[in-house]
Write a structure and sequence with these properties.
This protein is an alpha+beta fold. The protein has helices spanning about 5-15, 15-20, 25-30, 115-120, and strands at about 40-45, 50-55, 60-65, 70-75, 80-85, 95-100, 100-110. It contains 4 helices and 7 strands. The radius of gyration is 14 Å and the shape is globular.
């Protein structure tokens, strides 16, 4: 997927102004297939590192990237997700995803992403081949 298409989708989701400068977007654009539908994007800390989390109809993409560090990419198939929840607590909100017997807790997420995150996780899952 190219960056312009990604930027247009971020505008549709109403989050473009918060993410257009993020270093992770280049990696995200390269990780998405043209038929992937990006439904949610948020940031949070997991394993002590700030990460960008993108939820599509086929996968959840988790990216850590910095100016002086190597980009770290993790993909979780949506079919592997067994549960999720969003804990909203003013400045200490978190998004939790359980998949493949492992629990991922992304702390200090934006509280305003609760509806978008829950909506994205409730969308139909589309199978894909890697």
């Amino acid at each position: 997927m190219d960056r312009k298409f990604l930027d247009d989708r971020l505008k549709e989701l109403g989050v473009y102004s918060e993410y257009y400068h993020r270093l992770e977007l280049k990696t995200l654009a390269a990780s998405l297939n043209y038929d992937d539908k990006l439904n949610c994007i948020l940031t949070g800390y997991w394993d002590g590192v700030r990460r960008l989390v993108a939820v599509t109809d086929t996968k959840i993409i988790v990216i850590a990237s910095g100016v002086m560090t190597e980009t770290n990419l993790m993909v979780i198939k949506r079919t592997a997700v067994t549960s999720w929840k969003f804990n909203r607590k003013f400045l200490l909100s978190s998004a939790e995803i359980e998949a493949g017997g492992k629990k991922y807790v992304f702390a200090q997420t934006q509280g305003g992403r609760e509806k978008l995150f829950n909506w994205a996780m409730e969308q139909p899952i589309r199978e894909y081949e890697e």
